[in-house]
Amino acid sequence: MTASLPIAVDAMGGDRAPSEIVAGARLAKENHGIDVVLVGRSEELTDRGDLEVIEASEVIAMDAEPGSSVRRLKDSSLVRAAEAVRDGRASAMVSAGNTGATMASALLRMGRIKGVSRPAIATLLPAPGTTPTVLLDAGANAECKPEWLAQFGQMGAVFAQDRLNIPAPRVGLLSIGEEPGKGSPLVKETYAEMQTVNWGAAEFIGNVEGRDLLTDEVDVVVTDGFTGNVALKTLEGALKNLMLALFSAMGERPEAAEAAAQLGPEFDQIYRFFHPDTYGGAMLLGVKGVCVISHGSSGAQAMENAIKVAAEMVEAKVVEHLTEAIAG
Amino acid sequence: MTASLPIAVDAMGGDRAPSEIVAGARLAKENHGIDVVLVGRSEELTDRGDLEVIEASEVIAMDAEPGSSVRRLKDSSLVRAAEAVRDGRASAMVSAGNTGATMASALLRMGRIKGVSRPAIATLLPAPGTTPTVLLDAGANAECKPEWLAQFGQMGAVFAQDRLNIPAPRVGLLSIGEEPGKGSPLVKETYAEMQTVNWGAAEFIGNVEGRDLLTDEVDVVVTDGFTGNVALKTLEGALKNLMLALFSAMGERPEAAEAAAQLGPEFDQIYRFFHPDTYGGAMLLGVKGVCVISHGSSGAQAMENAIKVAAEMVEAKVVEHLTEAIAG
Questions:
Q1: Same domain for A223 and A247?
Q2: Which residues of B touch A231 (CB under 8 A)?
Q3: Which residue of B has its CA nearest to A183?
Q4: Domain assignment of residue A324, yes or no
Q5: Are strands A133-136 and A52-55 parallel, antiparallel or unpaired?
Q6: Which candidate in A60, B51, B66, B305 could, as Cys together with B280 as Cys, close a disulfide (CB 3.0–4.6 Å)?
């Protein structure tokens, strides 16, 4: 029974590793009763309390070339974390480290689910007043084929069901116009491909646009990893810069600054709502195991959330459901 | 002398045509002394005051297929507006109508600047505390070649000089990582191409990311029309949804609603700063004439701004400068 296995946490990955990672792992255990095993250099994990450690002597740097690092650094925390899942010592892996190396470790050590052409990164976007929107691929595959994108849609639908409890997710294809004929050649071919796919309980609703991402118009948005990553970073930048501009404007007039101070709880609420850390990281869909990828800048709370998501996804049997959806 | 010619305004194009378009044209004349000629059905332009009209009996619908419409509707306001520029009866054209048909009219009637592979749509993105960022292509070419993108960079640099008075614009290539090796095959090839281009006073600064769009990191961001349009609409949606979420949050607590009411001027300032209408529309770069494309939803003030931008671009001799940059 997978749920009794611990979550393997890459203790060495992330801008604030190992201290914040270890702190997040402890929070996950204390606040949610989740069993966690740290992966890394035990001598550097002195604050680990009673958490167990899987030894790994090497660390893949945040800016290292993913493929060659994973092949070369066989005793790295990322590779060992993926192996722990493969070998049945852990139920899932979580890392805030090098995203490309996390994907490569998971792909090479766990392997692909049968029938999956390419794993994709699924991320959640906050949508005011409704469930978040699943965006995939958020950056795993800079260049895609129509069949891969259609499969991303199937995997994203399963993820929306298991992660967000949406029974019949609406799947949209990101384009530059709603009509079927709009978009790049890739999008047009993908549109045709997506009309032939078995969607199970989900539904393909056609093209959607960038302005639909944070709304209730769609549940799962499919795009290639290049466009998805640009859209994701554009969103993050827009939200940050709008908030900064607002605070700057409010600082210019004394009465405004006073009124703004009254709005502390509301600004805090909005900040949290739109902050990526709130959503517990992205998930690599299509590998034989749960792999959660947290922001490189993750602090303890972001890691706690990411570990909680990983445990929930194990519990929800998302890998089994993905396997069934792709086989079906 | 081009500056003495009127600006041709497509009176029939846009969701709020003709009334708001005509009102905007009158504002441009009254507030800025800009000579305007309306293009459309004079019998429907009863509020035109003393503005002159170039007769055009047909209208290209907002959702019509661009290419065939322009070929078929030879007496449409869009086609006649482009012809007015070609024939020396107007110095520039402005339309809030069908974007694809506006591009097609300008391209087919004015023709391309010698050496230009493909015209591109340049749009301005608000960057708090600094000059706006030029984004191109914002949607003219869903699929691009590396050489086209490099040329978009050259044209964008000229536009930044003439429109934003930036003497030495920093040109960046939109990608999913700052390192030269990051991105799609198109981006990697374009990077190499952009290193060989003659930048004049401008400078190619390498890859930039979605989060840089609204910042002072870069002046001109080059991308294909698919990615550019997705980024633009993602930005518009993010700003709208963040503002909505903020207002909604502030309405839940009576003290917050009171404080928010005090911040009216600041919210208004931010709203205007980020609103697309403030920037006077996008410009089609690479055709033999000034062609300004305003939002389909443009009201009188957006049209006034767009007409003012068109007049300024004629005055700045942007077409001459583009011609020199591409020839050089």
A1: yes
A2: 210, 230-231, 234
A3: B142
A4: no
A5: unpaired
A6: B305
Q: How far is B30 from chain A (nearest CA, A)?
A: 31
Is B112 in the same domain as B122?
Answer: no
Those residues with Cβ within 8 angstroms of residue A201's Cβ, 6 or more apart along the chain or in another chain: A157, A161, A167, A168, A169
* Length of chain B in terms of residues written: 328
Region label for B40, one of left (φ > 0), alpha (ψ between -120 and 50) or beta (otherwise): left
In a shared domain, residues B23 and B69: yes
Least Cα distance to B184 among B215, B218, B226, B139 occurs for B226
| B133, B260: one domain | yes
First to last CA, chain A: 24
Q: Write down the residue that tokens 């070339």 correspond to.
A: A65
Cα B188 from chain centroid (whole Å)? 27
Q: Please list, residue by residue across A108-130, b when 16 or more beta carbons sit within 10 angstroms of its beta carbon and e when fewer do.
A: bbbeebeebbbbbbbbbbbbbee
User: Does residue B321 lie in a domain region?
Assistant: no
- How many domains does one find in chain B? 2
Cβ distance A233 to B246 less than 8 Å, yes or no, reads no
Q: Which positions in chain B touch A238 (Cβ < 8 Å)?
A: 213-214, 234-235, 238-239, 242
> Are A239 and B214 within 8 A, CB to CB?
no
3-state DSSP assignment of residue A37: strand
Q: What is chain A's mean pLDDT, rounded?
A: 95
pLDDT at B4: 81
Average pLDDT across each block of 10 residues of chain A; the chain has 328 residues. List them in order: 79 97 98 98 96 98 95 98 98 96 97 98 95 96 97 98 98 94 94 96 98 97 97 93 90 90 90 82 97 95 96 97 95
pLDDT per residue as tens digits for the range B250-302: 888 899 999 999 999 998 888 888 887 778 789 999 999 999 999 999 999 99
A72 touches chain B (CB under 8 A): no
- Residue B222 in any domain: the answer is yes
3 state DSSP class of B96: coil
Q: CATH number of the domain that A1 lies in?
A: 3.40.718.10
Interface confidence, given as ipTM, is 0.93
Which of A186, A214, A226, A253 has the highest number of chain B CBs within 10 A, making it the mutation to test binding with B?
A: A226
Could you tell me if residue A202 is inside a domain?
Answer: yes
